[in-house]
Inverse folding.
């Protein structure tokens, strides 16, 4: 059956209208609870998958490859302009230390889980585990970046997104429920709660600058920087030598975009974040996610239960590492919960969890999630290499 829409311009309009409609519905009161547990990024993947299945858009199109090549590195650069490294440094050694425990828990948990389950998982499952690791160290942008770097099959991303949502949001519910016991836990753990007061003071210093009104000049600069740097990394990537099955030419493109984005965040260009640079970057990555969904095979969802078991095992190891780190470093439960959500949930939900634990410190969750966004690509690629060795 010939798809209804085949031209790149037609596919683009269909997908961008679909994304816009999802966010419009999400702002309505009747849909607020629904999208809280099944947020828009999930539907940005699944609705295009259904659209291609029912013949509205094609499974394959040159437009999809163009989106991957040009929007992924550009979107990463714009999102990383918010990497406030000086602000992160002000959080102090305990906050960064517990974040290290949380992230290492995901990396070690993913690798150990693959050792135990890889014989039961589908072929090339190491690529799916790598993508899930990327998502659970900073958010869905890292998942897409890692998936495209290592060549995760588009059909495999379906079950990975299911696991990311069901297991990830299930863990968020547990973390929120535990907030009622933070005073009791901190007393048992002999934590100096003055650390929270100190953090509050530091965050007020960090947040002195306010988000400004977006101007046309801001938007032009964002697009020029994003696409300019993205195009540069796309040309430089093939010049670097491949490293095994993980770092190919496009893998290098993603790594270079990440490094340059972090470097630019140390310059005055980081001020573009006050005008919404990361939001523009998110739009570019959502378009990429939609094209990935369009290429996916709906039958791939049948692998979700096995990946779900793996996801639960990863979370269990991650939780154990946080408990160990919290006890050794004498970290308040607030920081333990926030660092966990900064990894598993990313910039969207980490501030929510932080605000539930300590209302005035929601921004700590955002900063730690930004740190996860910076290192998530590298963590995902590390897991990809380890799991590839195990599988072969």
């Amino acid at each position: 059956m010939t798809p209804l829409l085949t031209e790149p311009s037609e596919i683009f309009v269909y997908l961008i209208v679909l994304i816009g409609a999802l966010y419009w519905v999400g702002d309505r009161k009747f849909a607020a609870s629904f999208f809280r547990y099944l947020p828009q990024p999930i539907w940005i993947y699944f609705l295009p998958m259904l659209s291609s299945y029912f013949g509205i858009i094609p499974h394959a199109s040159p437009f999809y490859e163009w989106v991957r090549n040009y929007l992924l590195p550009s979107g990463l650069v714009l999102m990383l302009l918010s990497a406030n490294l000086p602000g992160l440094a002000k959080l102090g050694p305990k906050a960064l230390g517990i974040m290290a425990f949380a992230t290492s828990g995901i990396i070690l948990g993913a690798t150990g889980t693959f050792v135990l389950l890889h014989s039961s998982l589908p072929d090339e499952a190491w690529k799916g585990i790598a993508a899930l690791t990327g998502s659970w160290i900073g958010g869905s942008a890292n998942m897409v970046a890692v998936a495209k770097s290592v060549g995760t099959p588009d059909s495999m991303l379906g079950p990975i997104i299911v696991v990311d949502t069901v297991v990830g949001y299930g863990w968020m519910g547990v973390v929120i429920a535990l907030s009622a016991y933070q005073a009791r836990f901190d007393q048992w753990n002999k934590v100096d709660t003055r650390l929270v007061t100190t953090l509050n003071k530091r965050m007020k210093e960090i947040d002195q600058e306010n988000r400004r009104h977006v101007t046309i000049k801001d938007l032009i600069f964002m697009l020029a920087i994003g696409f300019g740097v993205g195009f540069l990394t796309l040309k430089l990537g093939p010049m670097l030598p491949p490293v095994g099955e993980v770092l190919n030419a496009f893998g290098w493109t993603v790594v270079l975009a990440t490094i340059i984005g972090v470097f630019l965040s140390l310059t005055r260009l980081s001020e573009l974040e006050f005008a919404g640079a990361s939001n523009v970057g998110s739009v570019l990555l959502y378009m990429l996610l939609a094209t990935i969904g369009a290429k996916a095979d709906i039958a791939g969802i049948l692998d979700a239960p096995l990946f779900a078991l793996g996801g639960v095992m990863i979370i269990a190891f991650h939780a154990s590492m946080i408990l160990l780190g919290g006890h050794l470093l004498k970290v308040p439960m607030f920081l333990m919960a926030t660092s966990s959500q900064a990894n598993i949930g990313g910039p969207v939900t980490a501030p929510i969890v932080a605000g539930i634990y300590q209302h005035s410190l929601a921004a700590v969750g955002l900063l730690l999630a930004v740190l996860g966004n910076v290192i998530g690509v590298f963590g995902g690629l590390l897991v990809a290499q380890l799991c590839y060795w195990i599988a072969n």
